[in-house]
Write a structure and sequence with these properties.
Helix content is about 50%, strand content about 15%. The chain is an alpha+beta fold.
Length: about 220
């Protein structure tokens, strides 16, 4: 569980754990607890798939982990869930895996050949990438480790990297006058033209229409 703002305490018998925006709380399944809130608090709960291949077993004892990145991750999760898009499931899976990696204690330090191979796969399949679980299985690693290693090596989450590659692919296609913006959005994997416009502007600082007008002068 991630806390977006404020804080709260959770009690497991006589044990108390505090949660805040810079701390993730691991709750074991089916363990009785009681939460105490001093004020209204927004939280995001991530449910690990029980028994799913590749995902770690974090045990049966509740614990917390401090990390300043949790606050930003929580906000990204809330934003993605508030305005779902065609690729939101892929992005949410990657963000969730980063939290699990930190809880698990993953600290990848090297840009191994398998990371370069993964990036090449994402470049080729950015319009319709497989799920993180499928990618991790192909690499014979768990999803949490893959997500953490990718961000550490390339400075972006896997979901953000895929959206950036889509924007740059679309940038090249905008030189074709015969292709409409809606067609380019579809070919590059965006949900619709509106989604295409938002992501393109976020990455390149200009709308697709304005960019096309500039290069066609």
């Amino acid at each position: 569980m991630l806390t977006v703002d404020e804080a709260f305490e959770t009690r497991y018998g006589h044990r108390e754990l505090a949660s805040s925006s810079a701390r993730a709380l691991f709750r074991p399944r089916f363990v009785e607890h009681r939460d105490v809130y001093a004020r209204s608090t927004q939280c995001v709960t991530l449910v690990l798939p029980a028994g799913a291949a590749g995902w770690p077993d974090l045990g049966t004892v509740p614990f917390t982990v401090d990390d300043s990145s949790f606050a930003e991750t929580a906000r990204e999760l809330v934003t993605e869930m508030s305005v779902p898009r065609a690729d939101s499931a892929f992005v949410l899976e990657g963000l969730s895996a980063l939290v699990v990696a930190r809880l698990q204690g993953c600290e990848p330090r090297e840009r191994a050949p398998w990371l370069r191979r993964l990036r090449a796969w994402l470049d080729d399949a950015c319009a319709d990438p497989p799920s993180l679980s499928v990618l991790a299985r192909a690499l014979d690693r768990d999803p949490a480790y893959v997500a953490a290693a990718f961000r550490r090596s390339f400075g972006l989450t896997i979901g953000r990297y895929v959206r950036r590659r889509r924007a740059w692919h679309a940038r090249a296609l905008l030189r074709d006058r015969s292709a409409s913006l809606a067609e380019i959005a579809q070919r590059t994997g965006f949900a619709d033209q509106s989604h295409f416009t938002r992501c393109f502007r976020a990455e390149l600082g200009v709308t697709p229409g304005a960019y096309r007008a500039r290069i066609m002068r």
